[in-house]
Amino acid sequence: MSRPTLSPELLVALREGVPPRAQKRVDLEPALAETWAWRPGAPPTVETDGGEIVTLDEVNGALTSPSQLRCTCPIGPRCLHVLAVARALPAGTGAAPAGAAPTAAQRAAPPPPAPASSTATASTVGAVGAVGAVGAVGTAASASPALVPSRPAVRAGVIDALRALVPSRAARRLDAEPSLAEAWAWSLGPTGAQVTTDGGEVVELRTGDGLIAEVEQLRCSCALGPRCLHVLAALSCLPAEGASPAGGLAPAGPAPADQRSGDAAPVDLAPVDAAPLDPAPVLPVAAVAPVSAADAAPLAADPPLSASAARVVARLQAAVEPLLAEGLLGASDGTIAALRRAIYAARVEGLYRLSRAGAAVLRAGGALRKGRPPAAAVLELMTELLLTAHELERRGAAPGWVGEGRRAYRPAGQLRLTGLFCEPVYTGDGETAENGVVSWMVTRDGRLIRSGDVRPGRPDRIRRTYGMAVLLEGLSMSHQELCRAGVFVRDASLSDDGRVSSGRGSSAVRAGGASWREGPAGGRFDVPADVQLRQSRAEDEAEPLLFLRGRVVGTDGDAVHAELAGGVRLRLLPPEGAGAVGLDNLRMLVRAPPHPLLLIGRALPGLMPTLRLLALAADEGAALALPAAWDGRCNVAFDALQAGMLGIERPAVQTPPLDEPAADPLEPLRLRAQALVLSGRLGLPAAAVGTLGRERAALGGLGLGTAAAALGGVLSARFVPGAAEPMRAALLRLLIVERACRLDLEASRWSTP
Q: What torsion do the CA atoms of 722, 727, 730, 731 make, to the nearest 10 degrees?
């Protein structure tokens, strides 16, 4: 049969979603799919040795999107079968998939003509001015320097409701400076007030009949808005409902010189900080501006950096600038050496988190030249490096940003822990891979605690460790028993991330366990999924744990589907390292009646809700007959379900495919950031300015005003000589804006049926 072509970019995108073990097998057996049965047809299919069917939905003889490849196995298309088939297809050209680099056509897009009023002498700067005219969000300016006579009133209870949402540290700062917002720039309009902070964040106070009656009327351009210090400080300066309005505001400021003269001024490409929010956003994405200077001074609780440490941070930031100019793929030896010396200096100075982030970026750069890791992983590593340096410069020696050379354990006294479930830890099957098991427990107040045994070894160590003794002094229990029982720990020591120490200073004895519904973890299943997702991602968890109520409803042939109590549909995948047991358990659930279940799993990133199922138990009304030794729960990676346990009396239920998410509105941000990190300034050529302008305008039209402004900041730093902000700061803003907006999009998919 004549095989369809597949672009190299699509092969990279497919490889990203496949487990590392499957990737390695395809690398070792590149001709694996050649032994399978290739059948022509419309569409063509490939049958594997195990009977799985891979379908190739070609268009004009080409495959250009990951959605065109499907497999009948439970984890398809993120599976070995699809990757092996893709590896056997001839290379071709086509539209780049999501996450791929810009195509040649995009890079060659001609720039629009420069505006006649532009004062730039270079053609590139004139083209950039056109981008600003198309996509810029205008800066609010007052038409008169007169004082605004009054401010809108706020209904009693709104401030208290907002104060309960903002971080406690921000509330304490406002208590110390009650009139903080008085020094900010206030301006009034017919629909409310707009306040611009010293750091450039924009607070919008929308009124109804001159009154702010609910939190939904408040917006802020920072990453936490409206649950932030800026909104709370602005509300604190407003009169209460029924009181005399406060007057005598600060002048809104004179009009810009170009407006006073009436002359057409050159378009500025970098109104990033002062860009007002769009009045009617279409998507449920909060406008964010993560690189904030509102709290520029280090907090009182955080000691300042020493002079030598501050110099090291500045040195590393300076070393990153040429790296971003050249790109990771084309960085010179001198650039790499300068960054390596700065990383070593950070390590010597005790800035552990900064040095680890820099070393990870250097390793990723070397791996990229060998065809790995995926570009998305490199963006996360670069975000961590830039953000850590920025926060150290802004906050000082905050412990969370300085980091620790080794994990520190602190005394926690007496602990009563109740077992929940066991999770396999799989990092690969190479010589440096570490595999094992982590047992999760919960304290009386609902805090999650874990005790793990993860060591170098092959993947078969995971199942062996499940039956081995737990590494807690004085305790003779296996992980299989601990996750269903309880323990008393005397003189316990805990790390900040909830790990209990196995040192000799503590001792543990066995205690009784509790069911998920009645135990201390029961309240977690009542928290909405989107709220859990936001809380976990705020703690930088890439795949956060979720506690859900739902039922398995069937399969569409490509994936197992579940439905949450609120009607949200999602995909279920087995745990990594689960082997055949995890896959078989999902197949059994598909054939079982739709029992109401309690589910614990890890949410995978992406706009399509996907859960890596780790454990399950019967919810109220479920007729499960689990063995008494399991104590009402099943660890999906280890405990094999049987037909009699689930009351299976039917074949697998076929359900319609889940609705794929619409086109990702944030893809331009990720593509441009990826091109800049990998290829440097060459990744944003002058010929693509017109395309970039249209992308920026489209973001603004969708209500993503801050995202559009962040993209404009990168363009300004790239093209405008003497730009106000360096490329590293502009890129960091772009990366964090994209991350925060994407979190909003993902959370909305987990909350809306």
A: 160
Categorize the per-residue pLDDT at 94 as very low, low, confident or very high, splitting at 50, 70 and 90.
very low
Residue 473 confidence (pLDDT) above 70: yes
Give 523: exposed, middle or buried? Use CB within 10 Å, 0-12, 13-18, 19+.
exposed
Let me know if 383 is exposed, middle or buried by CB neighbors in 10 A (0-12, 13-18, 19+).
Answer: buried
What's the DSSP call for residue 452? Answer: E
What is the rounded average pLDDT of the residues 625-652?
Answer: 87
Residue identified by tokens 């049969």 is 1
Higher pLDDT, 242 or 728: 728
pLDDT tens digits, one per residue of 27-37: 777 788 888 88
The pair of structure tokens assigned to 716 is 């300004």
Helical pair 727-751 and 307-326, crossing angle rounded to 10 deg:
80
State the CB neighbour count (10 A cutoff) for residue 277: 22
Q: How far is CA 56 from CA 67, 189, 608, 610, in A?
A: 9, 57, 21, 23
Contacts within 8 Å (CB) and 24+ apart, 639-644: 639/581, 639/585, 640/581, 640/584, 640/585, 641/584, 641/585, 641/588, 641/589, 642/588, 643/588, 643/591
CB contact at 8 A, 13 and 100: yes
Phi, psi (degrees; rounded to nearest 5) at 42 = -130, 90
DSSP letters for 329-360 = TT--HHHHHHHHHHHHHHHHHT-HHHHHHHHH
Structure tokens at 178: 């009650």
- The tally of CA atoms less than 13 A away on the side-chain side of residue 309 is 22
**Structure token digits, residue 689:** 């300015």
pTM for the full predicted model: 0.59
Both tokens assigned to 318: 């300076």
Residue at token pair 């000799």: 504
Mind listing the pLDDT tens digit for each residue in 715-728?
Answer: 888 887 766 678 88
Residue spans of alpha helices (H) in 64-201 = 80-87, 104-107, 123-135, 158-163, 168-176
Q: Is the dihedral of CA 534, 536, 537, 538 positive or negative?
A: positive
Question: Regarding predicted confidence, which is higher, 2 or 534?
Answer: 534
pLDDT at 110 over 50: no
Residues 671, 615: contact at Cβ < 8 Å?
no
